[in-house]
Specification:
The chain has 26 residues and is an all-alpha fold. The chain contains one helix and no strands. This is 15kDa lipoprotein antigen.
Length: 26
């Protein structure tokens, strides 16, 4: 379960970074 939790956290962080980059571009 820990592996899944870490993977989900990493995915969420990447999604947040992409969203931030898109917002900055706009």
């Amino acid at each position: 379960e820990q592996d899944v939790s870490m993977s989900y956290k990493e995915f969420s962080t990447r999604a947040a970074r992409r969203s931030a980059l898109l917002t900055l571009r706009v």
